[in-house]
UniProtKB/TrEMBL annotation:
It comes from Oxyruncus cristatus (sharpbill). This is Max-like protein X. Transcription regulator. Forms a sequence-specific DNA-binding protein complex with MAD1, MAD4, MNT, WBSCR14 and MLXIP which recognizes the core sequence 5'-CACGTG-3'. The TCFL4-MAD1, TCFL4-MAD4, TCFL4-WBSCR14 complexes are transcriptional repressors. Plays a role in transcriptional activation of glycolytic target genes. Involved in glucose-responsive gene regulation. Residues 49-107 form the BHLH domain. The gene is Mlx. Residues 1-64 are annotated as: Disordered. The keyword Chaperone does not apply.
């Protein structure tokens, strides 16, 4: 009985050892487990660093865009808030861009207008300089010959000469022109010019008027 009991216990121990060895063989190598344990956190930290760098770059880009819009809103006068009822509410990006475009177009028009005004002023200055030179020459000529111009006729005499010439021409014009219709008026005007506005006719009219004015003066 003792021999049988020892044999049974030996069989149980043998089976236990075989089961333990089988279970141990199914368990992964502890060295590989340690290696995987150290390698997996390294992969995750690399991804985290890439994700963090991308997030920082994206945040910088957004901050730069926001700063650009804030600068535009501060520079462009039309972007200033006019309605105080909305408080601190900001303009949308689309409105800021549109107001900026409108303001730039306004500045271009103002610049073109100012350039045109400057060009006009330069022409005026040039004309005034020419007039100044002419007047200086006239003054100098008068100073050199103070008696010159005393016998010149007045503006009234020149007007009388012009009036006499126009009166003479109007008399012939009134006697020759018919106003029954526009077609007849046009035909009469051309015939009057060909007949009464010849150089010789005008010369005789002017000579007659000058003689008349001369007789009135002297």
């Amino acid at each position: 009985a003792l021999f049988m009991e020892n044999a049974r216990k030996g069989s149980i121990v043998s089976r236990a050892n075989s089961i333990g060895s089988t279970s141990a063989s199914s368990v992964p190598n502890t060295d590989d487990e340690d290696s995987d344990y150290h390698q997996e956190p390294y992969k995750e930290s690399y991804k985290d660093r890439r994700r963090r760098a991308h997030t920082q770059a994206e945040q910088k880009r957004r901050d730069a865009i926001k700063k650009g819009y804030d600068d535009l809103q501060a520079i462009v006068p039309t972007c200033e808030q006019q309605d105080f009822s909305i408080g601190s509410q900001k303009l949308s990006k689309a409105i800021v861009l549109q107001k900026t475009i409108d303001y730039i177009q306004f500045l271009h028009k103002e610049k073109k207008k100012q350039e045109e005004e400057v060009s006009t002023l330069r022409k005026d200055v040039m004309a005034l300089k020419i007039m100044k030179v002419n007047y200086e020459q006239i003054v100098k000529a008068h100073q050199d010959n103070p008696n010159e111009g005393k016998d010149q006729v007045s503006d009234e005499v020149k007007f009388n000469v012009f009036q006499g010439i126009m009166d003479s021409l109007f008399q012939s014009f009134n006697a020759s022109i018919s106003v029954t219709s526009f077609q007849e008026l046009s035909a009469c005007v051309f015939s009057w010019i060909e007949e009464h506005c010849k150089p010789q006719v005008l010369r005789d009219v002017v000579i007659g008027v000058l003689h008349q004015v001369k007789n009135q003066l002297y």
